[in-house]
Amino acid sequence: VSGVDLATSGSLADRLASADHPSATWFNPAAFTAAAAGTWGNAPRTVTDARTPRIVNTDVAVQKNVGLGGGKQAQIRLEIFNLFNRPQLAGFTTAQVTQGNSNFGQMTSQGGFMRMTQVSFRLSW
């Protein structure tokens, strides 16, 4: 729709639909209108402002090797995945990009995983 801004305002948390924000939208549904029957719409194939947010994930691993003598060696390793515990959002489903659907424009699910930590110990001889 000409003259209607596609972007919505607010922080990432404000733009995610949840129990706290049931009507939050990732993009402005009022910026779209259905094309007349038998015609093509004029929206581009890819709308940059409607893309899902980028995935930012930081992983870290630290290890220490210790010689035990006699050809034996020990290793302790700590790995942390998604170090800063950033939410990774799942992509849009067909319902969320189908005009007229009540979830049109809403980002409602999280993909990926929360922070995970693992510790390992290895003994070689």
List the SSEs and their pairings:
Layout: H1 12-15, E1 60-69, E2 72-81, E3 88-89, E4 110-111, E5 116-124
Antiparallel strand pairs: 1-2, 2-5, 3-4
Fold and architecture overview:
The chain is mainly beta. The protein has one domain (12-124). The chain contains one helix and five strands, in the order αβββββ. Strands 1-2-5 form a three-stranded antiparallel β-sheet, with no helix packed on it. The chain has a two-stranded antiparallel ribbon with strand order 3-4. It is elongated and about 80 Å long. The protein starts with 11 loop residues before the first helix and ends with a strand.
What's the helix-strand series? HEEEEE
* Number of E-type strands: 5
- Major sheet summary line: 3 strands, antiparallel
The percentage helix is under 10%
Low-confidence stretches are none
| Residue fraction in strands | 25-35%
Number of helices: 1
| Backbone shape | elongated
Which structural class do the helices and strands define?
Answer: mainly beta
Number of domains: 1
Mean pLDDT across residues: 82
**Assembly annotation:** single chain
The largest sheet has its strands arranged as 1-2-5
Note the gap between the termini: 70 Å
Q: What is the radius of gyration? A: 23 Å
